[in-house]
Amino acid sequence: MSLLFTLEALRFHKLKSERFVQLIFLITMVLNATQALFPLGDTDFSRLTEFIQEYPRFFTGRNSMFDPQKFVLTEMLTPGNYLFLASTLVLLLLNAYASICYAAIYYGEKQGNSLRTSLLSLWHSLPKMLLLALYLIVPVFLSALFFFIPLPFLLLQIYFVPLIFTDGKYRFTSGIERSRVLTNGIKMTIFLSWLGIQLLITLGRSIGEAIIPPGEVGRILVASFITTIGVLMKGRLMGAYYMAFSRRLGPLSVEQVEDIRDLMRNEWSKDKRSDDDNERR
């Protein structure tokens, strides 16, 4: 079933609100390209890299030049490094919000809502989303102690929370609990779909890097273009999963899986008929 939703994500250009999606695409690409071309802060992390390389050797005793007094956090990272990390984090959050915007518009269209209604729902849910971002700060820092291994499990638990907030039917804590219920039994399916998209993005970047020489502006623009496509694909993936599972009440059954497959096939048939009608006109 994960392949079915991955294929749906590839159809990110299929929305009635084409102009708004194009606007999201343009803004997201400009932000990513600007960060790559004119990064804020200092991108030299040589001291931190040296620490990462020498730290394990200190405990194994293998040709270590490690001096604990030399590697102090305030000396390993400069103020410019902190600025660069902060700007990168802001860009990641903006990319995530662009995905959520696309997902909300996609889901709204499937529910028969206008673009204006979907945008108003996004606006009203913004305070809850900001609170969610603050709520995630502590778990993210704690997961860093374990090499971010627990983070994917947490993110899969709250995968539907942004769209639940845009629905406006649940409060903050009940929305998180509702997302946990909806994702129960399908977390691995969602993860495999997301992983498939990530592999496609990585493949696209690798092809671009193989064709365009290092240091060329075109290489950065191609990478930003592919990153932006990935943002929209992940948004459509979230919207498609929420559309399919938002009315789920209990454990996932074989009959429900078949119904979901039929639902996705019907959506593809509707889009094909719509394209045929547009061509006739």
Structure description:
The chain has 281 residues and is an all-alpha fold. It contains 12 helices and no strands. It has helices spanning 2-9, 18-37, 46-60, 73-76, 79-110, 115-144, 151-157, 161-167, 172-183, 187-211, 217-245, 254-280. The radius of gyration is 22 Å and the shape is globular. It starts with a helix and ends with a helix.
Summary tags:
281 residues; mainly alpha; globular
Instruction: Provide the domain count.
Output: 1
Going by helix content, strand content and strand pairing, the class is mainly alpha
Helix content: over 70%
- The secondary-structure element order is HHHHHHHHHHHH
- The low-confidence runs, each spanning 5 or more residues with pLDDT under 50, are none
Give the overall shape. globular
Measured distance between first and last alpha carbons: 35 Å
Number of strands: 0
Computed CA radius of gyration, to the nearest angstrom: 22 Å
Task: Provide mean pLDDT, rounded.
Answer: 82
Strand content: under 5%
Largest sheet geometry: none
Explain the layout of strands and helices.
Elements: H1 2-9, H2 18-37, H3 46-60, H4 73-76, H5 79-110, H6 115-144, H7 151-157, H8 161-167, H9 172-183, H10 187-211, H11 217-245, H12 254-280
